[in-house]
Amino acid sequence: MSNHFEGETGRWGTRLGVASNLINDNFKGKKVYDMGCGGKQLKLFLEDNLYCGLDTSDYGVEEEFIQVDFNNISTYPNIKDNNGLIVCLGLLEYIENVEEFLLFCSQSISYVICSYNVSDKDSLDKRKKLNWVNNYTLKEFKDLVQKFFIIENSFFLQKREYIFILNSKEN
After folding, report:
1. Residue 48 has what DSSP assignment?
2. Residue 58 has pLDDT above 80, yes or no
3. CB 134 within 8 A of CB 98
4. Who has greater pLDDT, 4 or 143?
5. pLDDT of 100 over the 60 cut
6. Nearest to 109 by CA among 27, 19, 24
7. Would the pTM of this model clear 0.70, i.e. be above it?
């Protein structure tokens, strides 16, 4: 993995750096659907990718942006892009029905890069304080993901967080 990532610090820095390197090295030229994009930091580190941000809050529409409630499937956009890539970093912990979300992703696109903070080392109270609404161990999370995806690779980041590269069984 090359080092396309420099200068970002803070709690998202490592995750953002690993994800942007994976995208720039393995998914060059693909459209990136950044689910839970927030302030669209990922876009700053992409080299040759089209970009669409999706989030519950509207941070502006200077480029392609879709407002979505990730806990309401009726608000999910119609994405059918076998050449695109869904990226969801720091999002899955806030989704009430992760299985439904993963099914949507697997039917929409071929590849997903996602992060997840597993519960193996956390108490339920600690997760609730972070407003996380689900509680999967690493094994439980992998079992859930593998209903819809092949896990092509995974990377341990820090503490309890992993990044996964997923290939849809549907597409």
Report:
1. S
2. no
3. yes
4. 143
5. yes
6. 27
7. yes
